């Protein structure tokens, strides 16, 4: 399993728009075989940082998602919404291999 960690620099005046954008992806990603772990919006601390995490069975499955989603009209709408609203300034993407307690490892690899 591979987990993608996204760290966004958000526009603090556009958190409602960023939340709308996040909710779009919460519905979109599973269509392409991913598991979304949610968006995490600023609460205490930095007011311009938001996080998101999602997983795919493998890096190859993630790459397939990137190919398959590129032409999807709903994905294009989400990208256009972010561009129009400028709800985030930039993002960083990192990949991790999760380690689970033994009782949760069944079927994960």
TrEMBL record:
SUPFAM superfamilies per record: Dimeric alpha+beta barrel
Domain NIPSNAP residues, every copy: 7-99
- Alphabetized InterPro entries for the sequence: Dimeric_a/b-barrel, NIPSNAP
Q: Which domain of life is it from?
A: Bacteria
Could you identify this protein by its name?
NIPSNAP family containing protein
């Amino acid at each position: 399993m591979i987990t993608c960690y996204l760290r966004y620099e958000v526009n603090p005046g556009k958190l409602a728009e960023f939340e709308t954008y996040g909710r779009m992806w919460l519905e979109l990603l599973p269509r392409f075989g991913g598991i979304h772990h949610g968006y995490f919006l600023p609460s205490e601390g930095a007011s311009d940082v938001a996080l998101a995490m999602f997983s795919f069975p493998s890096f190859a499955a993630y790459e397939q998602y990137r190919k398959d989603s590129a032409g999807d009209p709903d994905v294009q709408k989400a990208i256009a919404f972010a561009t129009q609203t400028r709800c985030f300034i930039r993002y960083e993407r990192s990949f991790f291999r999760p380690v689970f307690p033994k009782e949760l490892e069944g079927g994960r690899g």
